[in-house]
Write a structure and sequence with these properties.
Number of helices: 4
Number of domains: 2
CATH superfamily of the largest domain: Outer membrane lipoprotein wza domain like
Shape: elongated
Mean pLDDT: 84
Largest sheet: 5 strands, mixed
Number of strands: 10
Strand content: 25-35%
Structural class: alpha+beta
CATH class of the largest domain: Alpha Beta
Distance between the termini: 12 Å
Strand order of the largest sheet: 7-6-10-8-9
Length: 200
């Protein structure tokens, strides 16, 4: 029991470090510096020392990954980080439009998934994550403050809607914690994780 709790605590620490203290990109950004821009995200665009380049109030990235630029028209930024998208736009503007363009593309809202963690965890709540970031079941439990001492780690319920039908799966998370080569379960939008108490 003590060893599994130690492994669980280590998972919590590592996941928390990854999810919560990552470096952020542009000022005002709501995503980490390694976040790839996705369709549906809302970005602001600032081009300094340019009469047409006052900060935008927010533009949504189209389904095919484009934003609308006053000089270039439709401009593709999907899959790029904020810094890489800014550099790409600077290169496109340099020469024909501006001598030394300085561009800042900032994500102010991102497409996300939501999931719920309930029961014998330290901080049950509803959580959200970028849609293009893969969140494992262990990540989700760590975000909810990890298991309480009374948690039944062998019978964690994952509730998921599949093809319009509600499904319930029972997962032995204790085995997952002890087997680093085991199969990972990734969270989907709308999932509910329910951790029951152990009365043994």
């Amino acid at each position: 029991m003590a060893s599994s709790r130690l492994v669980s605590s280590l998972v919590t620490a590592l996941v928390g470090l990854e999810l919560m203290c990552g470096l952020y990109g542009q000022a005002g950004s709501v995503v980490g510096e390694d976040y790839p821009i996705s369709p549906g995200d809302v970005v602001t665009l600032s081009t300094f020392d340019d009469p047409k380049g006052s900060p935008s109030t927010g533009m949504r990235v189209s389904r095919n990954g484009m934003i609308e630029h006053p000089y270039l028209g439709a401009f593709k930024i999907v899959g790029l980080t904020e810094a890489a998208a800014s550099r790409k736009l600077e290169d496109a503007l340099r020469g024909d439009y501006l001598v030394n363009p300085r561009v800042s593309i900032t994500v102010i809202s991102y497409t996300k998934i939501t999931f719920v963690v309930l029961g014998a965890v330290n901080a049950p709540n509803t959580f959200s994550a970028p849609k293009n970031k893969r969140i494992t079941l262990l990540n989700a439990i760590a975000q909810a403050g990890d298991f309480k001492d009374v948690a039944n780690q062998k019978k964690v319920q994952l509730l998921r809607r599949v093809n319009g039908v509600n499904k319930a799966y029972t997962v032995n998370v204790k085995d997952m914690l002890e087997d680093s080569n085991g199969n990972l379960i990734y969270i989907q939008d709308g999932d509910t994780i329910r951790v029951k108490e152990s009365f043994l």
